[in-house]
Amino acid sequence: MSDFSAKYLSEAVELIRALDPATIEVVVNGLAAVRERGGRLFILGVGGSAGHASHAVNDFRKICGFEAYAPTDNVSELTARANDEGFDTVFDQWLRGSRICAEDGLLVFSVGGGNAVAGVSANLVRALDLAKEVGASSFGIVGRDGGHTAQVATATVIIPPRFEQRITPHTEGLCAVVWHLIVSHPALQRVATKWESVEAKARS
To answer: What is the pTM of this model?
Structure first.
C-alpha cells in the first residue's frame, strides 16, 4: 500500500507546527482595527485562491460582521476588465472603482505572494501597491518567501515552503486553516457558527 496519505498528513502537521502564532495575532488585531474604524475588507486571490477569497468573504461577513468583498465574485466585471485592459490590472482598477481608502483593509491569499519581476500574479502586486498608496492596511496568507505581499503588507503569515513537490497544495490547504482560525478568534468572531450553536442549544 502507498504511504502517500500518511506522508502528506505528516507534512501538514509539521507545517502547522512551524506557523508563527504571533504573526497570526498581528493579522487578527490589524483586521479588528479595520472593522473598528468602519473600514471594508477586500479579499484577493487568483485560481484556487479566488475560491478561497469567496469562501472567506462569507465567513468575514457572516461570522465576524465585516463589510467584505472579493473582486473575483463578479465574473462579468472580472472578465470585462481582463478582456479590455489586461489581467494585470483587474484588481487595482476594481479597487479604484470601489474607492479604496485608508480606513479599508486588503487580505491576499496566494502561493507566491506576487512577483512583479517574474511577472507572476502582477495583479496582486498592483493591488498591494495601491493599498499602500492610499494608506489602507494589507495582510496576507502566502507561501514560498511571501513575494511582494510579505514585502509590503502590514502583516503576512507565511506557510513555510518545506516540501518542494507540494508547496501549492500545502499552502492553499493551510491558508484555509489559518483564515478559519482568524474568523474563529475571539477578537473577531461575533456570531456562533451553526453546528456549535445547535449543540449549545441542545445542552441548555
So the answer is: 0.93
